[in-house]
Design brief:
The complex is a heterodimer of chains A (116) and B (111). Chain A is built from no helices and 11 strands. With 116 residues, chain A is mainly β. Chain A starts with a strand and ends with a strand. In chain B, strands 2, 5, 6, 10, 11 and 12 form a 6-stranded mixed beta sheet that branches. The chains are: A mainly beta (116), B mainly beta (111).
């Protein structure tokens, strides 16, 4: 297993278009997290899954955002009707246990979205 | 809510210099504390962590001590190398099932 994989690495889209990102976590990791990172800022939590259940969504996740993890393995993050303010790095992380308190959250390299 | 305040960068040091990156936190209780590092072109990696007061996390020559009295978790290294050039993030976890990150400090080491 080579770690958390995110695709695509880069995405340029026109304002108003829909985009979808994929995250493949480390095998058998129960927890999967999505974060957003804008330039000069730290990662901000968006949502997380415990297996296939989406347990929490940040207020940052507007109605245009939706995330799924249908089989408890890979996850997708879709942004509808993209806006320039959506331009950011979208990070995925996975964790082997129920919380990151006593274990490491492993991050992917991220998908950089540019909305023009 | 929980938050992390991190020393603003960028920080530029000469090789073999002593490094300190300050981090303080606000939390209702006793969180676990982390330092993550992001090397150019790579994802975030856990550098070290401490889960209770007075614990010292250490890795790759870096150290940080969990200070409850000052709510701090400053990152230190006695002699930095060019390969330490990266962005460093302080983070906390406390019962809300997610990591809360600081804004990051970009470190550049000059040969």
């Amino acid at each position: 297993d080579t770690g958390v994989s995110q695709n695509p690495r880069h995405k340029i889209t026109k304002r108003g278009q829909n985009v979808t990102f994929r995250c493949d976590p480390i095998s058998e990791h129960n927890r999967l997290y999505w974060y957003r990172q804008t330039l000069g800022q730290g990662p901000e939590f968006l949502t997380y899954f415990q297996n296939e259940a989406q347990l929490e969504k940040s207020r940052l996740l507007s109605d245009r955002f939706s995330a799924e993890r249908p089989k408890g393995s890979f996850s997708t993050l879709e942004i509808q009707r993209t806006e320039q303010g959506d331009s950011a790095m979208y990070l995925c992380a996975s964790s082997p246990q129920e919380s990151p308190k006593n274990t490491e959250a492993f991050f992917g390299q991220g998908t950089r979205l540019t909305v023009v | 809510g929980d938050s992390v305040t991190q020393m603003e960068g960028p920080v530029t040091l000469s090789e073999e210099a002593f490094l300190t990156i300050n981090c303080t936190y606000t939390a209702t209780g006793y969180p676990s504390l982390f330092w993550y590092v992001q090397y150019p072109g790579e994802g975030l990696q856990l550098l070290l962590k401490a889960t209770k007061a007075d614990d010292k996390g250490s890795n790759k020559g870096f150290e940080a001590t969990y200070r409850k009295e000052t709510t701090s978790f400053h990152l230190e290294k006695g002699s930095v190398q060019v390969s330490d050039s990266a962005v460093y993030f302080c983070a906390l976890y406390f019962g809300n099932e997610k990591l809360t990150f600081g804004t990051g400090t970009r470190l550049t080491i000059i040969p």
